[in-house]
Design brief:
The protein has about 110 residues and is mostly helical. It has six helices and no strands.
């Protein structure tokens, strides 16, 4: 396909809300391509496990979640992990605010 024929497609994200500007699909493919030579001799089970971890890793990266923190948590859902992290941050912020309010009243 020529650029002239498809010249508007690279800028679809400018016309529609919710269309990613950074081509997430291309980035996901590149992550797989980097290691395809390593897994080419692996068993189907090994490839499936690798692809599962790659998918989780890329999802964490796209959502701004530390992949190792997610794995260590034992949580099976990235969305639940993310929600709990936000709740913990909010709780820590509230505790910090109430502690600073108590300190300011003492002075």
């Amino acid at each position: 396909m020529s650029f002239e024929k498809n010249r508007d497609q690279p800028f679809t994200f400018l016309r529609y809300d919710g269309v990613p500007w950074n081509n997430n699909a291309e980035h996901a493919i590149k992550a797989f391509v980097r290691l395809r030579d390593v897994i080419s001799g692996s068993s189907t089970k090994g490839v499936d496990e690798y692809l599962t971890l790659l998918s989780v890793s890329e999802t964490c990266k796209n959502r701004g979640i530390d992949f190792l923190d997610f794995l260590r948590s034992g949580e099976r859902s990235i969305m639940v992990f993310e929600r709990r992290a936000v709740e913990e941050q909010d709780q820590a912020r509230r505790v910090g605010i109430s502690t600073s309010n108590a300190l300011s009243r003492e002075t």
